[in-house]
Amino acid sequence: MKITRISALALSLAATPVLASDLDLSLTNDSVKGQVNFFGSQDELQLGAGYTYHEGSRHIINADFHAQGRTALGNLPTTAGIGMRGIGWEDDDVDGGAIGLGGFATINIPDVPGLSFGGSLHYAPSILSFGDSDDMTSLELRGSYRVIRNAEVFAGYRYLNTELDFAGSPDVNLDEGVMAGIKIFF
């Protein structure tokens, strides 16, 4: 089964440039995540899909759908999006998911070409949660530097939390930590 998963992941990554606008790979101390976005920042819509493997056999998938556009915060050029992120997760005896509403923004710093800061926040209350999840919060913050025209490196923080649907159960951090990674543009 493990070889099949690895083969499917390798095949998916090999086919990514044909369909995608960018590929984002990131690591925390306990997880690895791959994210594919299908449209560029100039398009009016953004579709994306991702997979996270968290140490201890936790699997997390996400699908994103956002309306996006260019704007400015102060005098800083910004790409912003508003929409939803669907998240599903599985961990041994429990699993769940949610459809979180929220958005993202990426701010470019004109005085330092290639430097940008971005973040995303999505929240799903219990009405938009299913399985063993009662609510869900997804937050990501990052600073990026475009090293060459079609690749950038980044560092930041990722937080994915859910409250379990069992009485008296605590919140569970599905994925949390300082991250680093690369983003390749096609």
Structure description:
The chain has about 190 residues and is mainly β. Helices cover about 10% and strands about 70% of the residues. A ten-stranded antiparallel barrel has the order 1-2-3-4-5-6-7-9-10-11. The model has no long low-confidence stretch (mean pLDDT about 90). Keywords: Signal. It comes from Marinobacter daepoensis. Pfam families: YfaZ (PF07437).
Write the layout of secondary structure elements.
Layout lengths: L1 H18 L2 E6 L3 E7 L7 E10 L3 E16 L2 E16 L2 E15 L6 E10 L4 E3 L1 E16 L2 E14 L6 E15 L1
Protein name: YfaZ
Pfam families: YfaZ
Keywords: Signal
Spell out the key features of this protein.
single chain; 186 residues; mainly beta; globular
Helix-strand string: HEEEEEEEEEEE
Beta strand %: over 45%
Average pLDDT figure: 91
Largest sheet entry: 10 strands, antiparallel, barrel
Low-confidence residue ranges: none
Structural class by helix and strand composition: mainly beta
Cα-atom Rg, whole angstroms? 17 Å
- The helix count comes to 1
Shape: globular
Strand order of the largest sheet: 1-2-3-4-5-6-7-9-10-11
Share of helix among residues?
Answer: under 10%
Distance from first to last alpha carbon: 31 Å
Total strand segments: 11
